Structure formats: structure tokens, C-alpha cells
Amino acid sequence: MLSFRRVHKSYGGNEVVQGIDLELEPGECYGLLGPNGAGKTTTLRLALGLTDPDAGEIRLLGEPIPRRAREARLRLGVVPQVDNLDPDFTVAENLLVYGRYFGIKHAKIQARIPRLLEFAGLESRAESRIQALSGGMKRRLSLARALVNDPDLIFLDEPTTGLDPQARHLIWQRLKQLVAQGKTILLTTHFMDEAERLCDRLGVMDRGRLVCTGTPAELISEHVEPQVLEVYGDGARGWGRSDGERLCQRCEHAGETVFCYTRDVEPALATLEGREDVRYLHRRANLEDVFLKLTGRDLRD
């Protein structure tokens, strides 16, 4: 569905994509994760043929990119990070006009609109102006619009950013339906729980490189210890330097919190019982732990 072979891209001497190899299989949801500046947006632009690579080979839906990007995009759906719905049109008119860009006949688009509105939960909003929609409604309409040409592959760039939990869960449900129907999805997100729930496979990018790939379970098992202690409070740092670092495989200090990773949590837990200067949370390792280990805890601008 999409393949990158040793793809490079530089801007002003700064190599923002450094020899990426990437492959999407039909019918899977693939998550592309990474901090700001990791190269995710450039990777999407390269895949769409909007940016030319400096080296390497890209194929999208069997077509060489960028040479036949236009032909490939006819079978593609895109949900951009920032909504670009047309405020001059109603909800239904946004779908109708967008469908015309693909050369779809008017009657065929009109026949598809009711199903798309039902999929997005916007049946009662067909004649509403875009200004009257909530943020969640706009994101659902952007998803419905991306399906107007019945695409084989869908790109979603941070589709649930800024949404409340109810809207986020509804979009998750719709994306799972698309995969069940045989659609292929490439998803970028900063929500690790979203990636863990939706994605069959993941790739973590950092500083232009794809640093690891695998299923969520594989990445967690391979890169982090299974048990995590989050210890915070006035005595957390002191506990971390003494008991935490002595009893756990790895400890990281972030603000007032000490994150300790271990295979056997009981000895460390025993040292915390009865202490009034700390509080703690014991949990299993998750995808966010993998992400922070591989890309660091420092802010990226």
C-alpha cells in the first residue's frame, strides 16, 4: 500500500528524513509516532508527492512517487491535522464539492452522502453551516469527507487532537470499522493510548530516523521493563537515589516524580509502605514508557 526505500530529505543542510524504510500492508492500521520535529509531517508530504525526496524510492498504491502522485491520490483519503472544511458550504455541500474533485458524477456523490453522514453521526446536520458545528463534529465531517472517493488507503494526521473524550472514542470506533471493512490506515498521533488501541503496527520516529517498528505489545516487551513505579512528593528524589536506583533496573527523574522500571516490584514497594513524604502509583508498562525511553523526556519545539 505504501513503501519507502532508503528515503532521504534535507532542508538547508538539515536532514529531516534520514534513510527511512517503511512498508504498509493491506488492511492494517499503522501508527507513525514521534515528538515534534521528528520528521513525521515531512514523511507524509513525501508519501503524498507534495515534497520530492533527495534520494530513495517511494511507491504509493503501486504508483511511483512523485512522478505519478496524482494518479495515486485518486485512491487516497486524507484527514489533515488542521480542519480545512469550506465555511461557505453546508455539511452536505462540503461532501458534494469534495467528491467533484475526484471526477465522481453528481448522482453518485449524492447517493453516497447519506451513508457518509450516518457514518459520521451527522445525519441531522446535513444543512448546517460549518460555523455551527462543534470541534468533534468537524473532525467527524473531515473523516467522512476523506471517504467520499471510497479510498483504499487513508492518511490521518493527529485526527483526535483537541477533542473531548466522548468525541475521541467515537472516532476510534469509526476507525476500527474502517479497518474491519478492509481499509488501510496510516495514523500519526501524540496520544499513546490511541496508538495502542488502534494500531496493528507502529513505527517510532526521532530526528529523522525510524528508530523501531513492531506491534504495540512487541515494543513494550522489547524496550521497557514490565513494572513501573511512579513516586512523587517531597521525599521522592531521595527515595529514588537510594532505594529506587538500588532495587529497580532503571530510574528516571522528571520534575518531582521518579519513574522506576523493574521486573520485580515487590522489594521497592516494601520500602514505600508507611512513608508519609511520598505517594506512589504502581502500574504495568505501556507504550508511553517506550516512547519516552526512545525519544527522551525533554521538550521539543
Briefly note the CATH topology name of the largest domain.
Answer: Rossmann fold
Quick one: biggest sheet? Answer: 6 strands, mixed
Structural class: alpha/beta
In sequence order, what are the helices and strands, one letter per element?
Answer: EEEHEEHEHHHEHEHEEHEHEEHEH
| Average residue pLDDT | 94
Low-confidence stretches: none
Give the count of helical stretches: 11
Examine the secondary-structure arrangement and name the CATH architecture of the largest domain.
3-Layer(aba) Sandwich
CATH superfamily caption of the largest domain? P-loop containing nucleotide triphosphate hydrolases
What percent of the residues sit in helical stretches (DSSP H or I)?
25-40%
Strand content: 25-35%
Summed up, the domain count is 3
CATH domain class name of the largest domain? Alpha Beta
Number of strands: 14
Distance between the termini: 32 Å
